[in-house]
Each structure stands twice: as structure tokens, then as C-alpha cells.
Amino acid sequence: MSDITRLLAEWSAGNEAALERLAPLVYAELRRIASRQMQRERTGHTLQPTALVHEAFVRLAGGDGASWQDRAHFFAVCAQVMRRILIDHARANARDKRGGGAARVPLDEAATVVQSQAVDLVALGDALRGLEQLDPQKARIVELRYFAGLGIEETADVLHISAMTVRREWTRAKAWLYRELAGGVA
Amino acid sequence: MDAREGVAVPRAGRRRRLNSERFRRVDALFAGALERTAEERRRFLDEQCAADTELREEVETMLQLARVSEEFLETPVFASAAGILTAPADAIDHARFIPGDLVAARYRIVGLLGRGGMGEVYRADDLRLSQPVALKFLAEALARDGAALARFHREVSVARRISHRHVCRVYDIGEHAGMQFLSMEYIRGEELSSLLKRIGRLPHDKALDVARQLCSGLAAIHGAGVLHRDLKPANIMIDEQGDVRITDFGIVALAEGVSGSEAMIGTPAYMSPEQRSGGELTTRSDIYALGLVLYECFTGKRRSSTSSSAAVPELAPEVERVIARCLEDDPEKRPASALQVAAMLPGGDPLAAALAAGETPSPEMVAAAPKQGSLRPAVAASLVAVIVGAIVVLTLLSSRTRLHRLVPLDRPPALLQETAAQLARSAGYTAPRDTRWGFFLDDNAMRHARSQPERLRRGGQPAPITFWYRQSPQSLVAMDGALVMPGDPPMTISGMVQVLLDPQGRLISFEGVPPQIDVARDGTVDWARFFAAAGLDPSRFRRIASQWTPPQHSDARVAWSNGELRIEAASYRGQPTYFDVIGPWRVPERQEERPDSEPRATILLLGFYFGALTLGVLLAWKNLRLGRGDHRGALRLVAVTFVARLVLWVMAGSHVASVIQLVRFIEGMQSALYWACTIGLLHLALEPFVRRRWPEWVISWSRLLAGDARDPLVGRDVLIGGAFAAVMQVGDQLHSLIAILRGEQLPGVGVGSPRLYDNSLLGASGFTVSLVNQVCAAFLFSFVVISVLLFLTMVTRRPRIAIVIAWLLFYSLMVSNGGSSIAPLGLVLGVITPTLLLVVLTRYGVLALMSTMFFLHLMAFYPVTTELSAWYATSFLLEVLVLLALAVYGFRTSIAGQRVAGWLDE
Given B170, B239, B610, B742, which residue has the most CB atoms within 10 angstroms? Predict the structure, then answer.
């Protein structure tokens, strides 16, 4: 699976097209692992996101052979992919409710799950984009923490910064986003 | 306000956007405050914010928000999004494949692109060739349906043949887990339908552009014998370069035999009336759909059945006309081809588009070029006037410039024939079974007479125009099966006679073949009769020793001389076999010394011929193999030439009821076939190059070959060619006139071979023979000019330089060949002729050049005369008739139905 590592390297070198090609692979892998985990842990009904992403990485990038660098990149990609999938999905559902799409698939289980969240993913998406413009590092941290489910330490690893910095930035990022979301309501 | 641009602050009902500088300031204070305890924090903010209460307020807000948002986003969305990840694929997009799936061990699915009538279309990566592709899967219901499957396979086999920049490329067919799929080019871009939905109607210029590209793509599809059958905006992509790409051959089937239930596939809104009623589908059904698509491009609205008559303001009238033609209920009334639609659109020139794209336009494309070429009646009439005027001038000039008017041709051939026959009878050659006669031009006499034109005018000798007569106890059949001439068939049959007379009927030479088996006969010949026949007085001649051996076996030879003329005669057993009036101009042709250069020249000529033939065959073969040769046009050309040459053979040849006739006929066919194949070969070999390089040169020629003789452009080119020829011929004759008046030149016959009087003096049948020859010659000449130009262009890579070199070549040929004696005028003429010929070719094209050559030959090679009662006037009258008929044809077709009276009134 050197394909993945090559694409990861390309992406980290700034080739956005590489992400376009990575995204479907990552998405498919995540789906596969997720459904298997769900079957295994039917009762618990909770996914271990970190475990999921790690497993996806091992399966896609071949684990052992891959460098630590690849792992960091891979997590970043996972985070971006998840962010995109979830927000796009939420946006599509929101549009459907407004009657934008003609004959969409009826609301599925997934949509229900997303709806039940306290967070308006569409608004969050917009806010995150705004934050990204002002402070890209905060946006990356939100991506990794919230969308890829990485812990503080792991996030620090991926971003090459100290755990302390991650913690501080995370707090402030949340406040900024919260302000935006609340402001949107006001 | 757009929340995406920055983080907004809720404040007194007003949201203020932070710029990045402000954000950094607030965020830094925010960070600093967070690190401090409550008291430290107050002091810190007092210090930092000083009097800026607004800033302080903002930081305070942030601190407050930080407390509130402690739990915010702490649970990764990931966990809650489990539903999305684990939901069955169908629940998300109903797709059979999800991104990442591997299909047929070769394609990695990237995403679902859409769903068509036949099935789903995915975007995928071809792992083997690592390029993006689109995969189209048959809907499962259809995949189980044998007919649909067959259609699918058929579709692929035909669609693969289409390669065009405005048509989506189809690659291959495959199977995955029992499912059939098609791989094709992945086009990054937007569907025309969504583009129209997004921006409404297209800007006029863009719409025209799209329309033209659509036409060119659809023409390519139709050209492969395929019907699209479901042309609609959703099946048309605008790629990232803004180019139109026709996609989704979802319901394409072979162009033939589509009717009944199979025809009922397609999108109802874009169906033609015949498709809706289950009638037979043709390319014109696609033209109907094209009309609907064009309507949508130009108006942004879908055309409803009621909007037909209502004027649409945004639709330019010329576009509306085209669309209306496309939407005719009767397929026959719609434009015949997509290219024609493109040509009808304003400024439509698919030819230019094809050239710009580096494509070789097809003959049909060239023929469908928008060039109308109709002439205004006034212009066309002026051209006719030029031709008629030239005929009048040439006729008036003929008495001074044309040889046949100078050498009195008063005696009709019948009289000359009788004179010759009488002489033969008196010499004992009786009861001929076959007789033939004709005229030829004596080169040697011509050359000699140049110095004494006055003698000529009096009808004296030498006689440049010579009458010949032949008789034979057997049928006279020429060796080549065509024309009997002096020496062909050879004088080998006992009793054959050949007599040459000058146009006044005076004997020039007599030859008879003695019997093969000796006869017991004796006697002497009374040569006085021959002297009388030659119009000579024997008393002025004295006997001299015979020097010229008779061509036939003889047992007695005599010779006389009067100082200037020498007479050689011979007899066998008292029967004349030979009588020859030999002037100083006479060259002993039987032992004439050939110039040394001749063998080399012959070898060169042969080498050139075979080289050209080989090259022609190779080029034609290559063109055919690459599918760019105009095989239909070539076939027509071959057929027409073959028939014409066969007619020529029938008219020209001597036909006798004997077995030999069959052999001759086969030979005649061979000759006709040779000509036909040569011309067809030339067309196949050269025409595609011209079509690629200078397509505008062959528009009218392509149309004529396609059988469209009523096309205005064809008429125009014929007429223009005629007018150019008229001007050139008048110029040539005026030049001759001046030369003759100055005594520097003998009246000539214009350009061309000295043997031209062979046929043209022979009345209607001879006229036809000449005519066919001249049409072929005009064709050959044009193609020689073109091949020279092509060759030079290939060598120099600069068309302009090639044209200049070609001009120099023709000029030097003219000068070395014609060799005018009068310096300034001849030079001007030498400059003008090649210039005009090249202007005709480059400005008006191949057909105009052919027409010029044909008109030139017609005007030059026939016995033009003011004496319409002369026996040879038939040929002249026929010539004038053909000239006028061509001019009238050119006039009528080129004005294309415009009213002639109209401009007369103005």
C-alpha cells in the first residue's frame, strides 16, 4: 500500500489533488472498519474513534513500514475527510428539509444521529472555515480533536507542538467557535 | 452578513467582523488572561487594554465563553457519526458501489456521478493506466434483458470508433460480479443542463460556440453510422476548458433499421415526432433533438409545443430560422446533417473550426461549408458578357490570327476525298473496302512557311494543314483501336493507298502497296497525271537521278527537279507505288537523325511517370487506409471518366463487323479504364492533402462530385473560370495579332499540340472526341498544378513561398515553350498567364481552375470562323454552343434564384 504513503507525502508537500484521491480510500476504509466494529460492539453502540483511525491507518498504510510522519499525515487526512463528509452530509440534509433537493433518500439512521447532536454541523462548518482563515492552527486542532477524535497528546504529535499548547489553543478555539455559533443564533 | 468571512461578535444586535489583526490581539490577551488567576487577570487586562473598553469587553466575553464552552466539542463527532459510517450504502446514495471499491481488479471507485436510463455511472481510477475514467453500469433489470445487453455491446463496438474532441471517448467493456459495465473518458466539468439551470440562457456568442461544437460532435457520431437518440442538455458536458462534449450513448444503436418498440427509448421531452410515434429514426431525428437543445441554449427555456409560433425576443431571427428548420415535423424538411446546421448558424464555419483544431475536414464537411457563393445577377451577367464578348472578339480576330483562316480551307473534305480517290483509281487501285480521311498539321511545313506567310495566304505550298486520304481492300482499323491516321494501320496490305493533298486539293504525296505475289504485267506509268494532280508543269522539271528510295517495293524509280522542288516517283510492274513532292522543308522522316538527348529524355520521362504512379498509388492507399480519402468522390469520378472515355472510343474508333472488333473493344475498355483509374487515383492521392491544407479550394469541387450541380458555388466557379479563360485567350490572340502584323510570327493555333486539327475539323463526332479529351486534360492540368504546389509546400513549409516558386516555374515553362518574340508584350503575357491561373486556383479553387483550362481549350482548339457557311463551321458552332451553355448554366446556378428583372429595374 505504498500508494497511500505516496499520496500522503504528495499531499503534505502541498498537492491538493492527492487529497482528492485519498479521501475516497480513507472514507471507504473507515466505513468498513466502523461497520465491523459496530457489529462486534452492538451492545455498547460506541465507536472508539482513535482505535478506528489507527486501524484504518494500519490497514491502508501498512502500519509497520510506514513512518511516524506518515501516521501524522494520515490522521490529518482522516480528520479532513471526516470533517468534509459529516458537514457535507449535514448540509445536504438541511437542504432537503428546506425542499432544495427533489427526491432525496428519506432520512436515514445516520442523519438522525447527526440531528440528535447538540451541535449544528452546518453552522460549525461555516464557523470553522472562518476560524481557519484567521488561525489555521486552531482549525487543525479542532479537526483532529473533534472530527478525528484524537486525544491531546496525539494531536500534539501530529502537529509537532507541545501538549500544553494544544490544550490552550483547544480551549480558545472552542470559545471562538462557540461565540460564532451562539452569535449565529442571536 | 456572511459568517464565513470571520468570527462575528454578538453586540447590541449588531455583529462586527474581526479582521485578522484584531483577532490576533484579542486572542493573545485571551490567552494571557487564561493563564492567570482571577486577580492577576484583572490587573493584566487593566494594563493591556488601558482605555480601550471595547477591547476589554471583547476579551471578557471570550473568557466567559471559554467557561461556557468547556464541554463544547469535547465528544468527538466521530462517535456520534458512527451512524453515517455504518449505515448501509444504499441509505446514503443508493449506489451499488461505495468509494474505494475495486471493480474488475482494475478500477477503484471514487464516487457516483449519476444515474442514467440504462444504469449508474461512477467516477473511478483506472489503476492499470492510472487515469480517471467513468464507469457505466447497466441497471440490473436491463443487464438480465438479452436485448438490452445486445444493445449495450453494439453500442460499445460502434461508439469506440468515434474519436472526436466534442464526443466523450468510449474505452472498453467489462464485467464485475455478473454486472456489465462500460469504461469511458471521465470528463471533469458541468452538464449543460445544470449550467443552464444555474445561469439561465447562455450569452449569444457562447451559445453559438456551443451550438457549433455540438454540431461538429454530432456530425462525428453520425459519420460513424451511429444515432445518438437521446440528445439533451443532461447528456452534454461542458468540460473544464469550456469545450462541449457529447456523452451518454445510453441508447445508441446502429443507424440502420431502428424502428418499432426499440425506438421508444429516449427522453420524451426531446423526442422527435417520429420517435414519439414509433416511426423510423434517422439522423434527422437527432437533428430535431439538436434543435431543442439549441433552443434551450439560446433562450434558457425548454421549448414547449405552444412556443413554436410565439416570437421569442431573446432569439436572433437567423438563429430562430435554423432552429425552426431543425424542428420541422417532416424529417425531410429538416437540415440533412449536423454540419449543415452549423453552416446555417450565423458566422457558422465548421471548416474553419476543424482547421483550427488541426483536423482534416471530411469531404462532406467541405461540401457543407457555409460558402454560399451566389453571385449578384449583375455580377453574373457581367461575367457572361465577358465570355460572350470574348467569343465575338476571338471570332473577329480569327481571320488574322488563326491558321485555318489563312490557309484557304475552301474545299470541303468530300471534294478532297473524291480527288484523292480518283487519283488512286487512275493509278489502278480500285474497289476499296474502306476509306478514311482527315487533316493534320505539318510541323516542318509550318516552320518553313513562317518566313513566307504571303505564299501561305495565296494557298501555295508548303501547306501546314494537310489533308490525308487512305483506302484499303480491307477494313481500316487503327493499331490503338481509336483513330485511323496516316501510317496507322501501317501500309502493309496489297492495294492500300495513302494520299496527301494540300487544302486546295493538290497532290503532295502518293503511296500504294504493290501486290504480294508477282503479277505478269508490264507497262510504263504516265506521270503527267500526277504532275497535273500536283498542279505542276512537267515541262519545267528536268530528270535527275533518284535519291529517295520508295517506301514500297518498286522496280522503277524516277526523279525530277525544278530547282526548288524535287519529285521522287516509283512504280512496280507499271503501277505507281510512290509519288512525292519534296520541298526544301521536307525532312527525311524515315531516317531522321534523332537528337542525342532523346533516350535520356525518354528515360527521364518514364522514370518520372513511374515514380509519380508509385507515389500516387502509395498516397492513395495511405489515404484510404487512414480513412481520409474521398472514396465516394473518386468512385464517381472513375465512373464518369470511364463512361466518357468509352463514348469517346465509340465515336472516334473505326468499327467493323469482325472478331477483331471484340479485341479492339476490350482494348478500348482498357484504355478507358486506364484513364478512369489514373484520374481516380490522382483524386484519392492528392485531394485529401488539398482538403487539409486549402479546404476552401475544393468546396465547389466536392459539391460537384457529391452530385450537387445546382449549387450556386459550382455555377459561380464555372462562370468565373470561363471569364478568366476568356480574358486570357483574348490576350493571347491579341498578342499573336501584334506579332503577326509585325511579321514576326505565323498565325498559330494557340497553345497546344499541332495535331489538334485531327479531330476538331471532323464535325460532330470529332468534336465530341476533342471535348472529352479536353475535359480530361483540364482535370489533369489542375491536378498537376496542385501536386506541384503541394510538393513545393511540403518542401518549403511555406505556402506563400510555394506559390511564388510555382509561379516562377510556370513562367519559365511559358517562356521556354511559347517563346514570344515581342519583348515587352510577350513578357507581360508571360507574366499574366501563370499569375491568372494561380489567382484562379488560390482565390476560387480547383473547379474554377478546371473550368479555366476547359474554356481555354475550347476557345483555342476549334476552327473559329466568321464564315458560318464553311464546311468546318459545324465544329465551331458546337464549340460556341457548349461555351454558351456553360456560361448560361453558370449564370443560372450562381444567381441561385435571385430575380434577374429586379436589378434591371434598378
Answer: B170
Query: What is the ipTM score, two decimals?
Result: 0.77
Q: pTM (2 decimals)?
A: 0.54
Q: Are residues A43 and A86 in the same domain?
A: yes
Which residue, of A52, A77, A102, is where some domain finishes?
A102
pLDDT at B901: 55
One-letter amino acid of B539: S
Condensed to tens digits (0 to 9), the pLDDT of residues B2-28 reads 333 344 444 433 345 567 888 888 888
Of A57-71, B169-183, B249-263, B794-808, which gets the smallest average pLDDT? B249-263
Q: pLDDT tens digits for B848-858?
A: 999 999 998 88
* Distance of alpha carbon B877 from alpha carbon B866, whole angstroms: 10
Per the CB < 8 A criterion, the answer to whether B552 and B513 are in contact is yes
Report residue B577 as a C-alpha cell.
507505288
**Residue-wise pLDDT tens digits, B551-601:** 999 989 999 998 888 999 999 988 999 999 988 888 887 776 665 556 777
**One domain, residues A94 and A158:** no
Number of domains in chain A: 2
A168 and chain B in contact, CB less than 8 A: yes
**Helices marked H in A98-134 — which ranges?**
109-116, 121-134
User: Which A residues, 53 through 92, put their C-beta within 8 Å of a C-beta on chain B?
Assistant: 82, 85-86, 89
CATH code where residue A145 lies: 1.10.10.10
Domain boundary residue, one of A49, A69, A102: A102
pLDDT for position B565: 87
How far apart CA B792 and CA B784 sit, in angstroms, is 12
pLDDT(B348) > 70: no
Residues 6+ apart with CB under 8 A from B150: none
Is the Cβ of A15 closer than 8 Å to some Cβ of chain B?
Answer: no
> Are A42 and A116 in the same domain?
no
From chain B residues 112-171, the ones with a CB under 8 A of any chain A CB are 125
Give the separation between CA B80 and CA B193, rounded to whole angstroms: 37
Extended beta strands in B369-506, E state? 434-441, 465-472, 497-501
B526 among known catalytic residues: no
Check the CA dihedral B599-B603-B609-B612 and report its sign.
negative
Percent of chain B with pLDDT over 70: 79
Range of the domain at A85: 1-102
- pLDDT at A46 > cutoff 60: no
CA-to-CA distance for B442 and B371, rounded, in angstroms? 49
Q: How many CB atoms lie within 10 A of CB A40?
A: 9
B320: which residues sit within 8 A by CB, 6+ positions away? B311, B312
- Among A7, A43, A117, A178, pick the best mutation site for testing chain B contact (most B Cβ within 10 A): A178
